[in-house]
Write a structure and sequence with these properties.
Residues 34-213 form the FAD-binding PCMH-type domain. Pfam families: FAD-oxidase_C, FAD_binding_4. Its cofactor is FAD. This protein is of the alpha+beta class and 453 residues long. Helix content is 36%, strand content 20%. It contains 15 helices and 18 strands. The protein has helices spanning 3-10, 20-26, 47-60, 112-120, 138-144, 151-154, 189-193, 228-240, 253-263, 284-297, 309-320, 322-327, 344-358, 388-403, 422-441, and strands at residues 16-17, 40-43, 64-67, 84-87, 94-98, 103-106, 124-125, 161-167, 173-177, 202-209, 211-212, 219-225, 247-252, 273-279, 300-305, 331-334, 361-367, 372-379. Helix 8 (228-240) packs antiparallel against helix 13 (344-358) and helix 13 packs antiparallel against helix 14 (388-403). It starts with a helix and ends in a 12-residue tail after the last helix. The relative contact order is 0.12.
């Protein structure tokens, strides 16, 4: 009997998929990376399914690749040969939503936007807001410590994660954290698992923090600039002025052109960058008007301020179209360096120069309020590996980000795509400690091998 037959027999009927065509659809994420040939896919619907799968995997030394919605952009859920893909997408229960305590207990397959909508029925919101919030899952957000459009004010996923239910590599169940807003008992295991990309354990539930939803829709502006650097300078000035936006997004000319070619947004020939910002405080309109003045002082050629929630949604909707528009142009190597806000204009210039120097098409968007830039390196569809000039341009961008005191990844994670640069940032001592942590939680090395560290 094949080892996988024992797994099929141990789980309820139809939990394990072995059809090669179906397996292939679960073996990929949103990157260009080609997967290997997994043995099968487990469609987990309960924690017990996960426990059974990991006990079997430990016994038979079979690598396990945890997977959420498959929307990752770093290759963390790309499956290799001989692995088992463990899909958590069917674990979609909101087990509890407590308005009194402002928390929710959710399973990993819950769609991010669905949790936010459920919270808003009680006057609350779930703050993390990835651009893919309508398709990305809470489990995937936790695995990568996802950020998003609102993180300039509310922080990344880790800032909303209070506690976790995790199945370890040997099938034991671990509960970390708490339901309270404060707690310092023991080491912060919750924070350790958030961002670990499925290399330390499989998250089967999370207690997350909810926040009071703004009483009124946020006020929104969009400013057009004749240069990307001017837009970056406006961001720095807005943050230095203490405006505390709840959203501050930057789109370069290449991104705007891709959106215009797709959706005909009426892009002006002189517009080289667009800045979209929001304020969700009670006097948000006054704050937005202040940000409007700062944009004009820093070279904005035109600033539009929304007059209705529909107009605000339309402006923010432009930002959410960005990645889909670029995917139409070619295969995408999507990066997410993050630098101190004070050097944002310099990092923007460095990205532009790298594209020119290496002859590479780069389209950049940014969660500009927290210095998190997403330069997207575009190359020919169907190419299994980015050409040498793309890697050279990416290498230059990464090194410049580190020189500016930044980081290789602000929210997408390391996955497969950034491992070659990881030690440039972490250094040998940190790398050794991280390998030691991995060995404690996963001594057999079966959890998402080859990823993140």
């Amino acid at each position: 009997m094949r080892p996988i037959d024992a797994l099929v027999n141990a789980l309820p009927e139809a939990r394990v998929v072995t059809d090669p065509d179906v397996i292939d659809s679960y073996a990929r994420d949103r990157t260009f990376l080609a997967p290997g040939k997994p043995l099968g896919v487990v469609l987990a619907t309960t924690r017990d399914d996960v426990v059974t799968t990991l006990k079997w995997a430990s016994e038979h030394r079979v690598p396990v690749v945890p997977r959420g919605g498959g929307t990752g952009l770093a290759g963390a859920s790309v499956a290799g040969d001989g692995t088992i893909v463990l899909s958590l997408a069917r674990m979609t229960a909101i087990r509890e939503l407590s308005p009194a305590d402002e928390i929710a207990v959710v399973e990993p397959g819950v769609i991010t936007a669905d949790l936010d909508r459920a919270a808003r029925e009680h006057g609350l919101m779930y703050a993390p807001d990835p651009s893919s919030y309508e398709i990305s899952t809470i489990g995937g957000n936790l695995a990568t410590n996802a950020g998003g459009l609102r993180c300039v004010k509310y922080g990344v996923t880790r800032d909303s994660a209070l506690g976790l239910e995790v199945v370890l590599a040997d099938g034991r169940v671990l509960n970390t954290g708490r339901r309270t807003m404060k707690g310092v008992t023991g080491y912060d295991l919750t924070g350790l698992f958030v961002g670990s990309e499925g290399t330390l354990g499989v998250i089967t539930a999370a207690t997350v923090r909810l926040r009071r939803a703004p009483a009124a829709p946020p006020a929104t502006f969009a400013a057009e600039f004749g240069s990307l650097r001017d837009a970056g300078a406006a961001v720095s000035a807005i943050m230095a002025a203490g405006c505390q936006p709840s959203l501050m997004e930057l789109l370069d000319r290449a991104t705007l052109q891709a959106i215009d070619d797709w959706r005909n947004i009426g892009l002006e020939a002189s517009t080289q960058a667009m800045l979209i910002g929001q304020s969700d405080v009670p006097d948000g309109q006054a704050v937005v008007e202040r940000m409007e003045r700062i944009c004009t002082e820093n070279g904005a050629s035109f600033v539009a301020v929304s007059s209705s929630p529909a107009e605000a949604d339309e402006l923010v909707g432009l930002r959410r179209l960005a990645y889909g528009a670029k995917e139409r142009l070619g295969a995408c190597l999507v990066e997410d360096v993050c630098v101190p806000r004070s050097v944002l204009p310099d990092m923007i210039t460095a990205i532009e120069e790298a594209g020119v120097r290496h002859g590479v098409r780069i389209a950049t968007v940014a969660h500009a309020g927290d210095g998190n830039l997403h330069p997207v390196f575009i190359f020919e569809h169907g190419t299994l590996e980015p050409p040498a000039e793309v890697w050279a341009a990416a290498d230059e961008v990464f090194r410049r980000a580190l020189e500016f005191g930044g980081t290789l990844t602000g929210e997408h994670g390391v996955g497969l795509l950034k491992r070659r640069w990881l030690e440039l940032e972490s250094g040998p001592v940190a790398a050794e400690l991280q390998r030691g942590i991995k060995a404690v939680f996963d001594p057999l090395g079966i959890l998402n091998p080859g990823k993140a560290i």
